[in-house]
């Protein structure tokens, strides 16, 4: 199977971007890896985020009870998004 040059370039660029995000997270340089549910819906689409959650590909984190803010890992979301769109 041969991969077109532009497709390969996109894949390598996405891999480098995700690697950089993970390295910053591990090094503690990145301030936070979490984004709010509202921001996740805005960036990736509400139906896509809900589908990933239903398929247990991502975890929702709630720090409190009832109507406390829900957050998601930006690295997890970005990895799934790049995997689906490439």
What order do the helices and strands come in, and which of them pair?
Blueprint: H1 5-27, E1 34-36, H2 37-44, H3 46-54, E2 61-62, E3 70-73, H4 74-85
Antiparallel strand pairs: 1-3, 2-3
Please describe what this structure looks like:
This protein has 86 residues and is mainly alpha-helical. It has one domain (7-85). The protein is built from 4 helices and 3 strands; from the N terminus they run αβααββα. Strands 1-3-2 form a 3-stranded antiparallel sheet. Helix 1 packs antiparallel against helix 4 and helix 2 crosses helix 3 (46-54). It is globular and about 50 Å long.
Brief characterization of the structure:
The chain has 4 helices and 3 strands, in the order H-E-H-H-E-E-H.
How many beta-strand segments? 3
The count of helical stretches stands at 4
Point out poorly predicted stretches. Answer: none
Largest sheet: 3 strands, antiparallel
Rg (CA only)? 15 Å
Total tally of structural domains? 1
Which percent range fits the helix content?
A: 55-70%
Shape: globular
Structural class: mainly alpha
Oligomer: single chain
Overall mean pLDDT stands at 89
Q: What order do the strands of the largest sheet run in, or round the barrel if closed? A: 1-3-2
Order of helices and strands: HEHHEEH
- N-C termini distance: 16 Å
DSSP strand content: 5-15%
Descriptors:
globular, three-stranded antiparallel β-sheet, 4 helices, 60% helix, 3 strands, 86 residues, mainly alpha
């Amino acid at each position: 199977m041969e991969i077109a040059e532009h497709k390969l370039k996109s894949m390598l660029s996405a891999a480098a971007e995700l690697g950089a995000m993970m390295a910053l997270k591990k090094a503690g340089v990145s301030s936070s890896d979490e984004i709010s549910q509202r921001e996740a819906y805005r960036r990736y689409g509400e139906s896509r985020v809900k589908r990933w959650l239903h398929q247990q590909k991502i975890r929702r984190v709630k720090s409190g009870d009832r109507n406390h803010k829900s957050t998601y890992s930006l690295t997890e979301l970005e990895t799934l998004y790049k995997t689906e769109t490439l």
